Amino acid sequence: MVEQERWEWSDETGPRGNLREAVALFDNEKDMQAAVDDLESHGFSNAAISRPIRPDALEKAVNHKIENVAEIEDDASVPRQAHADIDSKTQGTTIILLIPLYVALLVGAGVAAAQGLEVWQTVVISVMMGLIGAAFGGGLAYFIVHRRSERERREQAWGGLLMWVRTGSREQERRAIAILSRHAGRDVHLHGPESAAA
Questions:
Q1: How far apart are the C-alpha atoms of 9 and 74, rounded to whole Å?
Q2: Residue 8 domain-assigned?
Q3: Based on C-alpha coordinates, what's the Rg of the chain?
Q4: Per residue in 114-138, pLDDT tens?
Q5: Which residue segment(s) compose the domain that 105 sits in?
Q6: Cβ pair 21, 166 in contact under 8 A
Q7: Do 187 and 160 lie in a common domain?
Q8: Which helix (H) or strand (E) is 112 found in, with range?
Q9: How far is 159 from 69, CA to CA, in rounded Å?
Q10: The whole model's pTM is what?
Q11: Distance (Å, rounded) from C-alpha 19 to C-alpha 15?
Q12: Do 73 and 167 sit in the same domain of this protein?
């Protein structure tokens, strides 16, 4: 239907260009997360909040090197992804760290049981396997954290961490602008057709 069409968008393509959105830049992820928390506590769905995809993937998608965030902040065709909050990222990193450790401990215990080893030998093998699992998980976690910090650094070099918030009414527009500004948002503005907000 018309209403559904008006709100249509996807992670791959971004909005159709028929959405009214609030736009803001942030200097760091902490301020951006504070704005997201405030938006969600004032009735905005997490699905209404989006970010550009990773800088390297974004430059491939637009087929040119991005020098400034101004090149993409008002472009409806820029590929997007849902915003992932800091707590979710931390939990994900912790899980990535612990799973290899857990698997390695199970493998060590299984090998020891299959070989009929004594208790002290089982402990030694389990500890060794645990250390290997911890090292592997730690490496993966380091890679993810490094990639995340590199993304933030590159976005800061462009001029700030970009975030969009879809709005569906004049009241939502006013609320989004106030919240984004309150949490150190810069270049806070609206874009999209006037008719999209009733």
A1: 15
A2: no
A3: 23
A4: 877 777 777 777 778 877 877 777 7
A5: 89-148
A6: yes
A7: yes
A8: helix 86-115
A9: 6
A10: 0.71
A11: 7
A12: yes
